[in-house]
Amino acid sequence: MADAWYRDHNAALVNQYGPTEAAVDVTACRAEPGRPGTVPLGAPGDNTRAYVLDAALRPVPVGVVGELYLAGAQLARGYLGEPVRTAERFVADPFGPPGTRLYRTGDLARWNAAGELEFAGRADDQVKLRGVRIEPAEVRAALLAHPAVAVAAVIVRDDPPGAARLVGYVTTAGGPAHSGDTAAIDTAALLRHAATLLPPALVPADLVVLDAFPLTGSGKLDRTALPAPRRAEPGAPVRPSTDAERVLAGLVATLLGRDDVGAHDSFFALGGDSISSIQLVSAARRAGLVITPRQVFEHRTVAALALVAEPALRDAVAEHDDGTGTVPLTPVMHALFERGGDPRAYSQSLLVTLPTTLDHGSLLAAVRAVLDHHGMLRATLRPTGPEAPPHAPWELEVPAPGTVDAARCLRRVRVAPDDPDALRAAVRAESRAATGALDPERGRVFAAVWFDLGPATPGRLLLLVHHLVVDAVSWRVLLPDLAQAWEAASAGRTPELPPVEVSFRSWARALTAQTAERGAELPYWREVLAAPNPAIGDRELDPARDVPQTVRRLAVTVPPELAEPLLTARCRPPSTAGSTRCCSRPSRWPSGGGGPGATRSWCFWSATGAVTRCCPGP
Fold first, then answer.
1. Is this structure's pTM higher than 0.70?
2. SS (H, E, C) 101-122
3. Do residues 502 and 321 make contact, with C-beta atoms less than 8 angstroms apart?
4. What are the pLDDT digits (tens) for 305-359?
5. CA distance linking residue 255 with residue 41, whole number of Å
6. Which of 65-79, 211-225, 342-356, 459-473 is least confident?
7. Is the bond preceding 24 in cis, omega lying within 30 degrees of 0?
């Protein structure tokens, strides 16, 4: 554009940036002919300040994308008669004098080496799906990189409810989208193309080919008019036609709790995610088919996976890594001990309902099978030797299978079947007792309590495991293994669980081997963590009062105009998909949001996006 301008005009072309809320202009940059790339927004003018900040209102380094905030004499006071919208966009300025404010533009930008701002899209275009922050423009760019695509759009659809998925829409570069009943674009090939450019979580679950995009009266894309992906009528999916399709369809149905799965149903559209994709790979191997997690993300449907699945060689038995031996502590384990206090009772637990056909012998056999199968359930915490580095004073030792007595780990408590209060009291008492008995230094990291309510009433099973050897995702493996082992034992068979090809010990050792390589990142992370954490409430935490037992849960439904600022501007959790847990770091509450007597609460998210708990402030 700049080159064309200078060919026809003898006048400067200037790129000016200035939202109405900071009129008239904030930055300016002269567009020079022949300059490669996009013309920057430029640098702030007189009496104007610009900040590129992260979700916690911290400046990001040069070259890193953040949200653009503006300050200065020309900033508006707010929106007339719209206090909620004003509070959302005009926030306290942590860098200026008391009482000054920043305007949150909603634009994404980065600083370049010349001290100029570069536009990088809109922050409010981001979406969150299965705990991952997604920039639809990035997915759209990957689709547009295919030569057959002319126009593309990407949205998140939640129809049917509870099955949210990323859907891409494209038009063809060569004209009409369809020739007869055949799409001019091979959607499967387009998805494979996108998978080569995007991480698995960003590959659309479905693609829809259109002749033209629906537009609003002003000529913009009408997202609400985009059609849902075409599906077979309920109860009449395209039937699997080959042996491989039938096997995979049955596995997907079992794994995702579906009554029926068609050949062209998308695994992720049905509710699958990264963890269940790994479970599908393991289940397929047991059924005689070899697929990889990456293939699940790339091909998605039963029919497409059946085409790439290879038969498992009958004489190629997967080797089981029992994980026995010395296990170095991972960084998150070291962090547990750095917290201080007594870590013996730091555990996770689940209470599950049992079938009425369960008996003590089959349950004991199932517990024994799980203990022998998963090495970390047999782990013992011990001090490292004198040759160990000072930063690693502890390690785990996993003994051989069969060395932990399953009968010692399983306790049976008889409870009257018609007394709910007695059951609740028994669960509370046994939970406290089992937690108090945990001691990783003595190899006691697992406990199970069977609440026997008689032969006619489903009992309960309390599973309690030390957090050193289990996390929230581990239960999705342990519970199915326990159920599978019990089914085999109750049928008179010896439980045989699927092999663990990479144990936690192998993974931890590989992680430790990267210590020297990761050490180069230490200065960066020290800089990131140099800023003090904001206080929770108006006082310092009291170890005697601020304990898990004082945490309370409160569920409140609020209107969208209140929920949106909270979830996007105040407490946006990080988008790192590999995290298992994260704590939001909200900025200070906006002025007018409460006084000394106001109640405050802090929300904690898991990386899957679920709010796990809220901590009341003082």
1. no
2. EEEEEEEEEEECCCCCEEEEEE
3. yes
4. 888 888 876 545 567 778 899 999 888 888 887 777 788 888 999 999 999 889 9
5. 50
6. 211-225
7. yes
